[in-house]
Amino acid sequence: MQSFILLLPDGTPFTASMADVEYFRLFCSRLAINYGSQIGASVAVFFVLLILTKREKMLSWIFIINALCLVINIIRSLLQALYTVGHWANMYAVLSVVFGRVTATDKGITIAAGTLTLFLAICIFISLSMQVWIVCVTAGVRQRVIIMGATTTVALVAVGYRFTITAISNMQTMKYEGMAEYDHLVTSSNIAQAVAIWMYCAVFTSKLGYALLQRRRLGMTQFGPMQIIFVMGCQTMVIPGTSILPTISHANRLHTAIFFVLQFESSIPELGSQALTVTCIFLPLSAIWAGVSNTDSGFSDGDSSSHRHMVKGYFGRTPVGSPEK
């Protein structure tokens, strides 16, 4: 494509390409669409969660954490979208790599967005920990301690990586520098985060899957809240945290490798931010779906009391026919 000459602030000429202009224009458009879709999806799920949750159950910890995840994600995505209209995305600044026009507000927005990503990850892991604890309510004490210890350790490693990345990114922002020299650390953080979420969901779905097999042996085959939680747990494990190994090795890339694995694909880097969004959306969606099924079916297939306790604790709802405790 055609090249043209521009001048640096000190008058030094440099050559820019229309290809660079076109690439950055499309990149900003894709960023705006990506962040806008996350804002819209999070807002929609947040209001649906408010409408379908009973008022007296809105003080349950699981509801508060899930709602907080959505609120944080809305604000985070909005701040990230502001990048496309700020001085960081000024065409001349990008081409000349001179960011003298970047204001304190621009830097503050960038730092706030990165910090909120850390808070969002922490809230997601808290929510997953609460759900794993609830689903293991029928397990023995030793088994429960081992499961919670293993998942919590992996989550703390992921949060530690995220905290480090956030601190370094904020310092680099203040110095008008990028994260290129810390790519290895960013990659490790993404891997740790994907493994942590996958591990939580693996424990969650395997425990529920075993319970469903036991119910089937007893002739309880009705599709109800437990099956719904199992389906959504598998979905949360597979969609946001699809196996990252094929992508990292660059061998036979999976067509279905999305969200977390897209963080390792250089041609579509903007979609990597969807991973946490999809996870925090799936968490309350399973509660909404199962809550509606719970109301409709009345648990007519004879769930055990421990399973009713699990559903009540998970959704902040009481199954029909169960006494409120």
From TrEMBL:
Superkingdom of origin organism: Eukaryota
GO molecular function annotation: mating-type factor pheromone receptor activity
The keyword Chaperone is assigned to this record: no
Transmembrane segments annotated in the record for this chain: 32-52, 58-75, 108-133, 145-171, 191-213
GO biological process: pheromone-dependent signal transduction involved in conjugation with cellular fusion
Cellular component terms (Gene Ontology): G protein-coupled receptor homodimeric complex
Keywords in alphabetical order: Membrane, Transmembrane, Transmembrane helix
Coiled coil: none
Record Pfam families: STE2 (PF02116)
PANTHER family named in the record: PHEROMONE ALPHA FACTOR RECEPTOR
Annotated protein name in UniProt: Pheromone alpha factor receptor
Organism, as annotated: Lojkania enalia
